[in-house]
Write a structure and sequence with these properties.
The strands form 5 sheets. The chain has a 6-stranded mixed beta sheet with strand order 6-5-4-1-15-16. It folds into 2 domains: 271 residues, Metallo-dependent phosphatases (Purple Acid Phosphatase, chain A, domain 2); 69 residues, no CATH class. It is of the alpha/beta class. 33% of the residues lie in helices and 21% in strands. It binds manganese (II) ion. Manganese (II) ion binds next to loops.
């Protein structure tokens, strides 16, 4: 069985106000070409199909076109919702497109209802786990706690129970949208921290032959069997050094002795995505950036320029744009003596979590005395409440929970937010 694993299309997303729709359309062309040329048997899309709950019309049309082309190839596609998607909206029509071989999983209640694929070695049960917002799906999954590890663990217990009831030797694939421990983030994922923790251990997926992950935007391997495809396009300058890809995975026969604990034969290769325009981060005083011949090679790139001039130069963007017509982002970081209290506040904040920043602020205003455990818990609760309220506002309170659970989970979200 040859599968193509992709995720995080973020259809409708722009990059520093430049529309990425044409680039996204070229990626869909590339995807369809790859499926055809490489004789792919199934396509996996691990969430964040859209960039937001209510995507722009052009993005919906591109999604529709992608589904038509994939269905036209007769290649089954399994797709889940991510934290950027509105599960409920994306899920409309799922029953109907199922008939065309597009298997869309957006409801946590369907976690243990696999798409069964078949090849010459037998069955492969393919489970699509939509993004699980802990506070909103905890009850539905009967998870012991409202955190990522608990809800994903509960969903995986259901998956393993279903798998155990299938014929011996049935191979397994899981799609999930989560931050798995050991993964590397960039600046373009939305923070999903709950209770101060964003990540779930890779062991959550123990016993599965291939885990197709979405959420992190860099293509990466957590273990041989647990991988992120990453986004097909860069959505922040922090991804300047990424090689955007999909995974082409060949899943072979299961082990001769299914009880031995080893998984099915597996090999994976990276397929590069088309690059609409390279990214470059350049840094220095404005005059140097305008004159340095070493920067010739970046003239056609999307550019982020960090100016280190002691004083803000006159009209820097207009001057940079003469040499770099695609300059999109300007950062000022004046070179200052390290003892200068103004020495780049932004630089001090870079790469630190909201929790760390809040805790350091407490220490700062109390002459070095940081929060005690109780105060730390208050900060964590407050940051969680903000996130949950955002999710609820996005319509996800209603979107992620099914039927009678709606009112209860919405109430819970409101309670946390209060
Ligand atoms: Mn994403």
């Amino acid at each position: 069985m040859r599968i193509l694993h992709t995720s995080d299309w973020h259809l409708g997303r722009s990059f520093h106000r430049v529309s990425m729709l044409d680039a996204q359309r070229r990626f869909i062309d590339h995807l369809v070409e790859t499926v055809r040329e490489r004789h792919v048997d199934a396509v996996l899309v691990a969430g964040d199909v859209y960039d937001r709950a209510v995507p722009p019309l052009a993005a919906v049309e591109l999604y529709d076109e992608a589904l038509h082309r994939l269905a036209g190839l007769g290649v089954p596609t399994v797709m889940i919702s991510g934290n950027h998607d509105s599960a409920r909206r994306l899920g409309v029509g799922a029953g109907l497109i199922e008939r065309a071989g597009i298997h869309l999983r957006t409801d946590p209640a369907g976690c243990a209802d696999p798409v069964v694929l078949t090849d010459e070695h037998g069955d492969i049960a393919c489970y699509g786990l939509p993004y699980l917002e802990p506070a909103l799906v905890r009850d539905a999954l009967a998870a012991p706690k409202a955190n990522h590890t608990a809800v994903l663990g509960a969903a995986m217990d259901q998956v393993r129970a279903d798998l155990a009831a299938r014929p011996p030797g049935t191979r397994s694939i899981v799609l999930a949208h989560a931050f798995v421990t050991g993964g590397t983030a960039s600046d373009s994922e939305r923070d999903i921290t709950v209770g101060g923790v964003a990540a779930v251990p890779a062991e959550t997926f123990a016993g599965i032959d291939y885990v197709a992950l979405g959420h992190l935007h860099g293509c990466q391997r957590i273990t041989e069997r647990v991988r992120y495809s990453g986004s097909p396009l860069a959505y922040s300058f922090s991804e300047t050094d990424h090689r955007k890809s999909t995974w082409l995975v060949d899943l072979g026969p299961g082990p001769a002795d299914p009880g031995a604990g080893s998984g099915a034969e597996l090999s994976a290769q990276r397929i590069d995505c088309p690059v609409p325009r390279p990214l470059a981060r350049i840094r220095g005083p404005l005059d140097t950036l305008l004159d340095d011949p070493a920067l010739d090679r970046h003239e056609d790139a999307y550019v982020e320029a960090t100016l280190t001039d002691a004083h803000r130069p006159h009209e820097p963007m207009a001057r940079l744009a003469k040499r770099f017509p695609h300059v999109l982002s300007l950062v000022f970081e004046p070179d200052r003596a390290p003892e200068d209290p103004l020495a780049s506040y932004a630089r001090r904040l870079r790469g630190r979590s909201d929790q760390q920043i809040a805790e350091d602020f407490v220490a700062h205003v109390r002459a070095g005395r940081g929060p005690d455990p109780v105060e730390r818990a208050v900060l964590t609760d407050a940051l969680d409440a903000v996130r949950t309220a955002e999710a609820a506002e996005n319509g996800e309170a209603a979107d992620n929970a099914g039927g009678a659970g709606n009112a209860k989970t919405a109430e819970r979200a409101a309670e946390v937010a209060r």
